[in-house]
Specification:
Oligomer: single chain
Number of strands: 14
Radius of gyration: 21 Å
Shape: globular
Helix content: 25-40%
Distance between the termini: 26 Å
CATH superfamily of the largest domain: NAD(P)-binding Rossmann-like Domain
CATH class of the largest domain: Alpha Beta
CATH architecture of the largest domain: 3-Layer(aba) Sandwich
Strand content: 15-25%
Low-confidence stretches: 435-439
């Protein structure tokens, strides 16, 4: 609870934490907006495919001319990291291959890695975390994003001696969303295509939030970081509000929806008929835990926790997350405490590509949030055993046979993926073939 004081001390010493950020999109811009008011942090370089646009973003979010002039902008992240040798690199591109390359460039420069790019983390995060440890630097999930916030809640519960039954986040979900494409995504957000374009919103990225892919990726990251298990049938997205977490997210044997205790799960803010859930957690995160003793259960009641009917299951939740506005917590934790705000410990969960429609032989896949596939959460052991195609590799390659709608794609169904992402994934699988034990 003294992170701000440690940061202030770095400011007073004239030795702020020097940061290079890669990617100046919405998440990155939110972090950059906080930098002028955040103690101990100095962003000395920003890499983006469009440096002039990144420079304009900095001006638009409130950076003064002096700060903009002092920051170095480039379209070559690897060269920028090597030249500036920062203390921390923030990777916020969303591209798995780019994320892997930039993380390794950071390690080579002796910099800690804050991986906003959860797509890269789920594809090869356990390997990257191991490489960072060998290099003597920290590899961290990004605070403000839901996976790191959930990891914090899981750690809190376990440190307090409470058994974690379920953990995850909320989202807006209906089964029909799995088939949504970038062409019709905006009506589900209550926006026109013109309004979304004017706001600089990427339809494929926002579609990944809606079609279930981003939820699957984030839950896999949480499972890999905490050792929690993954539902064998994939995420169920049960409709559930804050007051019903402890009732709904119990094992089936206790009257809930979980196949077992100790799983990740996402709750929907919509009933299956489209009606809104009362006190929904669309923007929030949660953890459900079990009292270890009758005495602890009695304390739950005495201090007002929402519990199930037995009084033994209870929940804590955070109704909102502030995304990039909170990212400085990760930067400071890595640099000043040498602690990640969540990091992969093993390979428990994977996200595999599922056909959105019947895909003819020769169809070019367009990855997360696109027209061809969505991402489903799957236990890593089952993904490997079945030869399923990871969503992070389902981009730019063609199918070699017809794939019926709703079918999990196998690696045998597509051209062999190539490049740094495929190579890192193969190395990660070879090293982390067995998932961590269920916590």
């Amino acid at each position: 609870m003294n992170l701000s004081r440690l940061a202030a001390a770095r400011t007073d010493s004239g030795n702020k934490v020097r940061v290079v950020q890669v990617g100046a999109g919405k998440f990155g811009a939110m972090f950059l907006a906080q930098v002028p008011s955040s103690p101990g942090i100095d962003v000395v370089g920003i890499a983006d495919l469009a440096p002039d646009r990144a420079r304009a973003t900095c001006r638009n979010i409130g950076w003064d001319a002096e700060r903009v002039a002092a920051c170095r902008f480039s379209d070559d992240a690897v060269a920028l990291i090597a030249a500036l040798r920062p203390e921390v690199v923030v990777e916020a591109t969303g591209n798995p291959a780019a994320g892997i390359a930039h993380a390794r460039a950071a390690m080579a420069a002796g910099a800690h890695v804050v991986m906003v790019n959860v797509e890269a983390d789920v594809l090869a995060g356990p390997l990257l975390a191991a490489e960072a440890k060998a290099a003597g630097v920290v590899y961290s999930l990004a605070y403000g994003d839901q996976p790191a916030l959930v990891c914090e809640m899981v750690d809190w519960a376990r440190a307090a001696g409470l058994r974690v039954v379920a953990a995850g986040k909320g989202t807006k979900y209906l089964p029909a969303y799995h088939a949504v494409t970038p062409d019709d995504v905006w009506r589900h957000y209550g926006l026109s295509a013109e309004e979304a374009k004017a706001a600089g919103m990427n339809p494929q990225m926002f579609n990944s939030f809606l079609d279930g892919t981003k939820s699957a990726i984030e839950m896999a990251a949480i499972a890999n970081a905490t050792g929690l298990g993954v539902p064998r049938a994939g995420l169920a997205f049960p409709p559930c509000g804050a007051d019903d977490l402890a009732h709904t997210l119990r094992p089936r044997a206790a009257g809930g929806v979980l196949e077992a205790a100790g799983l990740v799960e996402v709750v929907s803010s919509l009933e299956r008929d489209g009606r809104p859930v009362a006190r929904d957690l669309r923007w929030g995160v949660y953890v459900v835990f079990e009292a270890p003793t009758p005495y602890a259960a009695a304390c739950f009641a005495q201090y007002g926790l929402r519990t199930d009917a037995t009084g033994h299951y209870a929940a804590m939740f955070k109704p909102y997350h502030l995304i990039g506005l909170e990212l400085g917590i990760s930067v400071l934790s890595a640099a000043l405490r040498r602690e990640p705000t969540g990091a992969p410990q093993g390979f428990a969960g994977d996200v595999v590509a599922v056909a959105k429609r019947t895909l003819a032989a020769g169809t070019r896949l367009d990855g997360e949030g696109g027209y061809t596939v969505w991402g489903r959460l799957m236990p890593a052991a089952e993904s490997l055993a079945s030869g399923a195609l990871p969503i992070g590799l389902a981009h730019g390659i063609c199918t070699t046979r017809e794939i019926p709608a709703g079918t999990v794609l196998r690696r045998a169904d597509v051209q062999p993926p190539a490049g740094i992402a495929a190579e890192a994934r193969a190395a990660m699988e070879a090293r982390f073939a067995s998932p961590p034990k269920l916590a």
